[in-house]
Amino acid sequence: MSRTILYIGNNLSKQSNYKTTLETLSSLLIKEKYTLILSSNKKNKVLRLLDMIFTLLMQKKKLNYVLIDTFSTKNFYFAFIISQLCRFYKIKYLPILHGGNLPFRLDKSSKTSKLIFSNSYKNVAPSNYLKSEFEKRGYDAIYIPNTLEIEKYIFKKREQIKPNLLWVRSFKELYNPTLAIEVLFLIKKEFPSAKLCMVGPEIDNSFNETKKMVNEYDLNDSVKFTGVLPSYKWHKVSELYDVFINTTNFDNTPISVMEAMALGLTIVSTNAGGMPYLINNYEDGILVEKGNPKQMADEIINIIKLNNTNLSSKAREKVENFSWDVVREKWLDILK
């Protein structure tokens, strides 16, 4: 008998050009013969919330489960409203936990968090970091990693690592994009030909701050801004680069880093949030202190000088464990 699932989240891939967890997971579950209803594709947040509520009310009699993408920002309250409606109508709901800042939300909004996460059917943590943080606060959580359709990621073996850096993230203060410019400036002292490509949408003033720093450091000829690129395009762009830098101050297990690992880039990241749960330092990537451009630059310089290609090979091996063939049984087990 087919099971019907309502997946609540930001179904905005057509507007953003980024394939979301919602889109990836729902398409894979459909292949497993589940019936999926998705909400919402409304760009306006108020309309999106209303659409989510309306969809739940209209479909409630046929639903077996509701999956809820749960973040730490304003969308946290979307998850709260939908979860309480599910409780009222006695529908099993599963928050899927996102964002390295979610533990802070648990502490800041403890009563609301308890209503959501203590009454859920399952709390699904895509990283052991969030699983650990939830369990510290008394909530049960099951670890099911974000999945990659690994067969779609062509691994490029870099025979010689060059000072070509790639950054893929939203331009948002939380992700500290200016750190990438500081790192490039330091690397160019050792490798004058070093270059940086930055891929992602403008979210706040950090984009202007980044461009301002490029001008101040006279790096206009060395930094490329592409704006938003769909995944397949930035995957193609990645072939021109060798080192993927992740400069964030808060994180969970970002899909962009997982994708970069699958594509054969060497990962150098801050140790923010869940990153130590994704990257084993000096084994399949390098972790550095948050906000420390010298340490990140020194590590990248060292990788280039030693031509340490083993890191990227080990990273690819790791993310192959995130393929649907490996992850599917965990989902099928809880969505019986």
Report what the structure shows.
This protein has 2 domains: 4-144, Glycogen Phosphorylase B (Rossmann fold), CATH 3.40.50.2000; 150-320, Glycogen Phosphorylase B (Rossmann fold, 3-Layer(aba) Sandwich). The protein is globular, with a radius of gyration of 20 Å. The longest helix is centred in the first third of the chain and has 15 residues, at 45-59. It is an alpha/beta fold. The relative contact order is 0.12. Helix content is 44%, strand content 16%. Pfam families: Glycos_transf_1.
Characteristics of this structure?
single chain; 336 residues; alpha/beta; Rossmann fold; 2 domains; six-stranded parallel beta sheet; four-stranded parallel beta sheet; globular; Glyco_trans_1; transferase; Glycosyltransferase family 4 protein; glycosyltransferase activity
Q: Could you give the order of the helices and strands? A: EHHEHEHEHHEHEEHEHEHEHEHEHHH
Shape: globular
Tally the structural domains: 2
Question: What radius of gyration results from the CA coordinates?
Answer: 20 Å
* Strands, total number: 12
Helix content: 40-55%
Q: How is the CATH topology of the largest domain named?
A: Rossmann fold
What is the CATH first-level class name of the largest domain? Alpha Beta
Contiguous helical run count: 15
- Unreliable runs: none
Strand order of the largest sheet: 9-8-7-10-11-12
Give the CATH superfamily of the largest domain: Glycogen Phosphorylase B
The biggest beta sheet, please? 6 strands, parallel
Strand content: 15-25%
Distance between the termini: 10 Å
